[in-house]
Amino acid sequence: SQKIEQNSEALNIQEGKTATLTCNYTNYSPAYLQWYRQDPGRGPVFLLLIRENEKEKRKERLKVTFDTTLKQSLFHITASQPADSATYLCALATTGNTPLVFGKGTRLSVIA
Amino acid sequence: GAVVSQHPSWVICKSGTSVKIECRSLDFQATTMFWYRQFPKQSLMLMATSNEGSKATYEQGVEKDKFLINHASLTLSTLTVTSAHPEDSSFYICSASFRDRGRHGYTFGSGTRLTVV
């Protein structure tokens, strides 16, 4: 069956360090992979999208990598801040109009 | 651009009553809307996909007679939880896919916290 796994339920890091979150998937051939941020009691907010033919994408302090051989994406937040504390969700879609399938998320806490 | 407005943000209802949740696309036409449910510390689980003007497609295990979805226009989709029970208490989120000047993506409503007492 298709599965998306995010490596840890919770991650605590010190302010200023780089947070690295992992997303692994099996039995999928995604056209693209997305990362979202979700704050408590709110809907997900889009952060970054990376396509199957792209290795890396950056946006300000965020970086995403996508390895279709390993079936893995890494999400990095550099120079992390307490305001980055949230749950980060990995999501896959096989085509442009199919529903996103989400991982369980990793709850990141950045400690000042 | 590509904003979806979801209402209400929270609702408390009595067991046995029905609750309607609305999602409106404000600045684009949402031909396809997705409805998700999220339990605490769990992932978003897809409930159904609705296309404007046609019947919704429900995921396995989701009762279509209990969770009524209407997508009668390109800017409005509704989810009605009928005869709600405490186990229906959850966080419901709508999402729409959009295309804008060659850019494609998904946008999400802010969610509805349903508590059935």
How would you characterize this protein structure?
The complex is a heterodimer of chains A (112) and B (117). Chain A has strands at 3-6, 10-14, 19-26, 32-38, 45-51, 56-59, 62-67, 72-77, 86-93, 101-102, 106-111. Chain A is mostly beta strands and 112 residues long. In chain A, the strands form two sheets. In chain A, strands 2, 4, 5, 9, 10 and 11 form a six-stranded mixed sheet that branches. In chain A, a hairpin with a 6-residue loop joins β4 (32-38) and β5. Chain B is built from no helices and eleven strands. Chain B has 117 residues and is mainly beta. Chain B has strands spanning 4-7, 10-13, 19-25, 32-38, 44-51, 57-58, 67-73, 76-81, 90-100, 103-108, 112-116. Chain B is globular and about 45 Å long. The model of chain B has no long low-confidence stretch (mean pLDDT 92). The A-B interface holds A 9, 34, 36, 41-46, 49, 89, 93, 96-97, 99-105 and B 6, 32, 34, 36, 41-44, 46, 49, 91, 93, 95, 97, 104-111, 113.
Describe the structure using short key phrases:
heterodimer; A: mainly beta; six-stranded mixed sheet; B: mainly beta; seven-stranded mixed sheet; four-stranded antiparallel sheet; 11 strands
Itemize the secondary structure elements and their pairings.
The complex is a heterodimer of chains A (112) and B (117).
Chain A: E1 3-6, E2 10-14, E3 19-26, E4 32-38, E5 45-51, E6 56-59, E7 62-67, E8 72-77, E9 86-93, E10 101-102, E11 106-111
Parallel strand pairs in A: 2-11
Antiparallel strand pairs in A: 1-3, 3-8, 4-5, 4-9, 6-7, 7-8, 9-10, 9-11
Chain B: E1 4-7, E2 10-13, E3 19-25, E4 32-38, E5 44-51, E6 57-58, E7 67-73, E8 76-81, E9 90-100, E10 103-108, E11 112-116
Parallel strand pairs in B: 2-11
Antiparallel strand pairs in B: 1-3, 3-8, 4-5, 4-9, 5-6, 7-8, 9-10, 9-11
